[in-house]
Design brief:
Length: 393
């Protein structure tokens, strides 16, 4: 049951978004299958906002539901900096079907492709601002390229930068923009006639849009269908990553049998691929990533004792991507906190912040671990207070 503070937070979010839409309470209520009286009580925190009401409000205001439900993770100043960072990306994404404007100092396609790879590499190194800084011009340049001199390589590179835009937006909690970028990725991948890129998009969609177990499962199956006749190493890696996406979907639904089945399938494909396949679409598919996904599934299903054993058994390779390393460290912090090992939890949070500050700040697990430590540690270290302020608690 939501706490009074949670009711007030959701109600305040609804009021804020309603005012941004320049609607009165009565005007919004007229668009809902709920009464004006109920809306009024929800906005002031006196009544619980049901999931149905929240979904109806989001639909009526045409906003992403996360704007109403997700915990506040950034301060006002941080939000303004993030908005300034993502706005040029949003603008560039809107240019996809417009006639190209004249481009000065037009880069050759080979340079654009190299820059697309650089942007992807920066995200994996958790240098989100650096990637965001080059994405708008890169998207614009490749959009101009496919409209004036279309080629398979150009469409493939454009699909790749749309995927990178999705990754940046998702990591800083702009889920609405991440969804737009994924749609653009599918549009470009179709024109590149690249089944592996299209399947990667299905994998991403399954992770982002897990409203129901059925939807996530259908997206994973659609990706597998695209690769059913493919036998290349690239296809094996993407197929394996789809199984890892299915692990996350099944864990959210609490389907332990499905989790085990998809982990086994992914392990079988990893054995065929051999070693870690970080060179294929930056997916990092391999035994290490499978172990990290298994840990994430146990966390999602709240199997804390098993998760602790799993977390302490993982040994990250020296070449593990920074984004994967940070995710593991935050997951480890959550598990240590939930099993009563507060000092170890805090140490892993500190290490995650040192390794990847830009990503760690916005991972939901970071806030969960910090909040748990604040409420359970008798003598919280001074650094914990600083970290709580850092994430906006």
């Amino acid at each position: 049951m939501p706490t009074p503070s949670e009711n007030r937070r959701v109600g305040a979010r609804i009021r804020e978004q309603r005012r941004l839409a320049h609607l009165t309470q009565r005007q919004l209520a007229q668009r809902l299958p709920y009464s004006y009286s109920l809306l009024n009580q929800v906005e002031c925190g006196a009544r619980e906002a049901s999931s149905g009401l929240v979904a109806a409000v989001a639909a009526a205001l045409r906003i992403d539901i996360s704007l109403l439900t997700e915990p506040e993770t950034v301060t006002t100043a941080q939000r303004q900096r993030l908005a300034a960072m993502v706005q040029p990306i949003r603008y560039a994404l809107d240019l996809y079907d417009l006639s190209p404007a004249p481009v000065q100092d037009r880069l050759p396609l080979v340079r654009l492709i190299a820059s697309a790879d650089t942007a992807c590499r920066q995200v994996r190194a958790t240098r989100l601002r650096a990637a965001a800084g080059i994405l708008p011009d890169l998207i614009t340049g490749l959009t101009h390229e496919v409209q004036t001199r279309p080629s398979t390589d150009a469409w493939r590179a454009l699909a790749s930068v749309y995927r990178t835009a999705h990754d940046v937006a998702l990591k800083v909690r702009y889920s609405d923009l991440a969804g737009v970028a994924l749609d653009r990725m599918g549009w470009a991948a179709e024109r590149a006639s690249d089944p592996c890129l299209a399947a990667v998009r299905y994998y991403k969609r399954a992770l982002v849009r897990q409203e129901t177990h059925e939807l996530g499962t259908r997206l994973i199956k659609a990706g597998h269908f695209l690769l059913a006749e493919e036998r290349s190493r690239e296809a094996l890696v993407v197929t394996g990553q789809l199984h890892l996406g299915a692990v996350a979907v099944a864990a959210r639904a609490g389907d332990r049998e499905a989790v085990a089945g998809h982990l086994a399938a992914a392990q079988g494909l990893a054995d065929q691929v051999g070693g870690e396949a970080g060179d294929v679409h930056w997916l990092s598919f391999g035994r290490t990533n499978i172990a990290i996904h298994a840990l994430g599934a146990r966390i999602r299903m709240r199997q804390w004792d098993d998760a602790l054993v799993q977390a302490r058994a993982i040994r990250l390779r020296s070449d593990t991507l920074t984004s994967r390393r940070a995710r593991y460290l935050v997951d480890r912090a959550v598990v240590e906190m939930e099993t009563g090992h507060a000092a170890a939890s805090f140490q892993h949070l500190v290490e995650a912040r040192r390794v990847a500050p830009e990503q760690t700040r916005y991972l939901p697990g970071t806030r969960d671990a910090i909040s748990g430590l604040v409420h359970t540690m008798r003598r919280p270290p001074e650094g914990l207070a600083h970290m709580a302020a850092w994430v906006g608690l």
